[in-house]
Structure formats: structure tokens, C-alpha cells
């Protein structure tokens, strides 16, 4: 009897052990494939031989809400035939360069690095105009409106000077009347992108969207096309220069600029003196239209540049 009870107890223990193991056993979770969004590889290049990057532009405000507007307008972009074609950036260097130059005395053309010059030539960029003649080219960056553009346009008209205004998405959206006035008075309106990002840090598609989106907004507003691009903050790479050219744009840098996106310590006199001391044949001048100092000095700048025998030309004259 005891032997039977022992056998029964042993069978019961074994049964409970099996149930327990089955209850607590868990199988390994299925592996989940994670898809990461690949960002372009960016190497930031610091050019010690370039003295300054005076054209740094911190002016584009409240731009993030304009992405949807850009996408809506993209169907109206200037270069749809080019945009729809395949743009292959494989193998192109995406090292990020910040535009800079070494200012030289005696009204000589500033120096840029050999690398910058080779990229300018390869991708039809603009740094200066005709340096053999006393021609100058006036450009403004318009990230946002600070109340001075109407006065700037008045001064340009009074002095019979045509300029180029590089605008952003928020500017086109919020100040369409001023953009229309620029066009009506014979000025060039250039592309400063929708949201003012650093282009080398974006994917190819986002670079194209920033450029064509802004062009679409401008086309919808004015019926006109855009042909010139100024990269935000002067940041570029070989890859972004290639994309811009593939979309039908000339990338426009500058050879004369100052830190005028913020109040100048010396006020309008500093604006005037800096421009007049750095003016040179073929100069592409960059001013920021948000600057009160530039606006107050502008009439005197234009008159005295002309008095020195210079002639104001446009970016179109460079492209011919």
C-alpha cells in the first residue's frame, strides 16, 4: 500500500512540474526591423584662410509653418522640366563650407580659397561680376520685413538703381505687396529658400523642395520665374551647388558685405564707410534690408559710388 502511495505521489509531482514549466515558459519576441531616415553626411569645413563670413543671415523668422505652402505651390515652380528629371548626387562631396573671403586694401577684389573658386567655376556660381570694369551689383537679403523695404525701394527708384532681393517663404506669404512692387519697378527677386535652412544638412529631396517650393510661391504671386539662388547663411557644398544648377539656378554669393543683420556699433556711418572702403570693380554687394543703418546710409552710398565712376549693373548682366 505504501509502495502504491509512493508511486502515486511521484506521478503527481511530475505532472505539476510539467504544468508549471509550461505556464512560465515565454518565447522570444519577434525581432522588429527599424528603418532609420538617412541624413546626408556633412563634414563642416573651417577655412582659416577666409577672413570673414560677413554675409551670415539670421533673419528668417517663423519659417517652419510654410512647408505646406511650399508643397502646394511646388506644381507652379519655374523649372518643372528640370525638377522632374533625375538628379543624381551620388559621389558628390557634401562637405559644408561657409562663404568667406579675405578683404584686400586699395579696392582690390577680395580673395577666396582655390576650392571655393573651383566650385564657383564648375557650377556657374557668382562671386563677382566683371572685375575689369567699374561695374557693381547691388543685392539685398530679405528674411523678414523690418519696416525698411519701402524706403529702400524709394531710394533705389530716386537713384535709378536696380537691385536683386533674395526672399524667403514667409516674406512672400506676408509681404506679397512689396514683392510685387520689386518686380514692377524692375528689380530681380531671387530665391532664399522657403524656410532658410542650411542646405548641406538636408536630403536631396528637401533641398529641391526648399528651392522649388519658394519658386512656386513666387510664381503664383507674380507669374514670374526665379533664376538666382542665395544659399541661407552662405552655407553650401558641392552637392547643393550641383542641385541648384540642375534646377536651372545660378548660386549667388558676394564679394562685399558687413555684419548688418544686427545694429552696427557705428550706425549709418559704419555702413557707409565699410561699403566705400571695400568697393571694387565687379563687386557683388550684399546688404540686409532689415538694417536701419543701411537704409539711412543707402542714398549717400549710391550717390558716392556713382561719383567714383562706378556703374550699377544687375545679375542678369553677369549672366549674359
From TrEMBL:
Pfam families on file: Polysacc_deac_1
The keyword Oxidoreductase belongs to this UniProt entry's keyword annotation: no
InterPro entries membership: Glyco_hydro/deAcase_b/a-brl, NODB_dom, Polysacc_deacetylase_ArnD, Spore_PdaA
Single GO term (MF): hydrolase activity, acting on carbon-nitrogen (but not peptide) bonds
Domain of life: Bacteria
A Gene Ontology term for the protein's cellular component: membrane
Domain NodB homology, chain residue ranges per copy: 134-313
Biased composition (Polar residues): 38-52, 60-75
Region (Disordered): 34-75
Coiled-coil regions, chain positions: none
GO annotation (BP), single: carbohydrate metabolic process
Keywords: Signal
SUPFAM superfamilies: Glycoside hydrolase/deacetylase
Signal peptide region: 1-22
UniProt xrefs under PANTHER family: GLYCOSYL TRANSFERASE-RELATED, PEPTIDOGLYCAN-N-ACETYLMURAMIC ACID DEACETYLASE PDAA
Name by which UniProt lists this protein: Delta-lactam-biosynthetic de-N-acetylase
Species of origin: Thermoanaerobacterium aotearoense SCUT27
Amino acid at each position: 500500500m505504501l509502495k502504491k502511495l509512493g508511486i502515486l505521489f511521484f506521478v503527481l509531482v511530475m505532472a505539476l512540474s510539467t504544468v508549471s514549466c509550461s505556464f512560465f515558459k515565454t518565447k522570444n519576441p519577434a525581432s522588429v526591423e527599424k528603418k532609420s531616415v538617412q541624413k546626408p553626411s556633412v563634414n563642416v569645413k573651417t577655412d582659416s584662410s577666409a577672413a570673414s563670413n560677413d554675409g551670415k543671415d539670421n533673419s528668417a523668422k517663423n519659417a517652419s509653418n510654410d512647408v505646406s505652402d511650399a508643397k502646394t505651390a511646388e506644381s507652379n515652380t519655374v523649372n518643372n522640366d528640370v525638377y522632374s528629371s533625375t538628379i543624381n548626387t551620388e559621389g558628390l562631396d557634401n562637405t559644408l563650407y561657409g562663404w568667406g573671403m579675405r578683404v584686400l586694401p586699395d579696392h582690390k577684389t577680395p580673395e577666396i580659397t582655390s576650392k571655393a573658386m573651383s566650385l564657383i567655376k564648375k557650377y556657374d556660381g557668382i562671386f563677382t561680376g566683371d572685375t575689369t570694369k567699374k561695374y557693381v551689383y547691388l543685392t539685398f537679403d530679405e528674411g523678414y520685413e523690418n519696416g525698411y523695404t519701402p524706403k529702400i525701394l524709394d531710394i533705389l527708384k530716386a537713384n535709378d538703381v536696380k537691385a536683386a532681393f533674395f526672399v524667403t517663404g514667409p516674406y512672400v506669404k506676408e509681404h506679397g505687396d512689396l514683392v510685387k512692387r520689386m518686380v514692377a519697378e524692375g528689380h530681380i527677386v531671387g530665391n532664399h529658400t522657403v524656410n532658410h535652412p542650411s542646405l548641406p544638412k538636408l536630403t536631396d529631396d528637401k533641398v529641391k523642395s526648399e528651392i522649388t517650393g519658394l519658386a512656386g510661391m513666387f510664381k503664383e504671386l507674380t507669374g514670374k520665374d526665379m533664376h538666382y539662388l542665395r544659399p541661407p547663411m552662405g552655407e553650401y557644398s558641392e552637392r547643393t551647388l550641383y542641385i541648384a544648377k540642375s534646377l536651372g539656378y545660378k548660386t549667388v554669393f558676394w564679394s562685399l558685405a558687413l555684419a548688418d543683420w544686427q545694429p552696427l556699433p557705428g550706425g549709418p556711418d559704419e555702413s557707409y564707410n565699410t561699403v566705400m572702403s571695400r568697393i571694387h570693380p565687379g563687386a557683388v554687394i550684399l546688404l540686409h534690408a532689415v538694417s536701419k543703418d543701411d537704409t539711412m546710409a543707402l542714398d549717400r552710398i549710391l550717390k558716392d559710388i556713382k561719383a567714383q565712376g562706378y556703374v550699377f549693373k544687375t545679375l542678369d548682366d553677369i549672366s549674359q
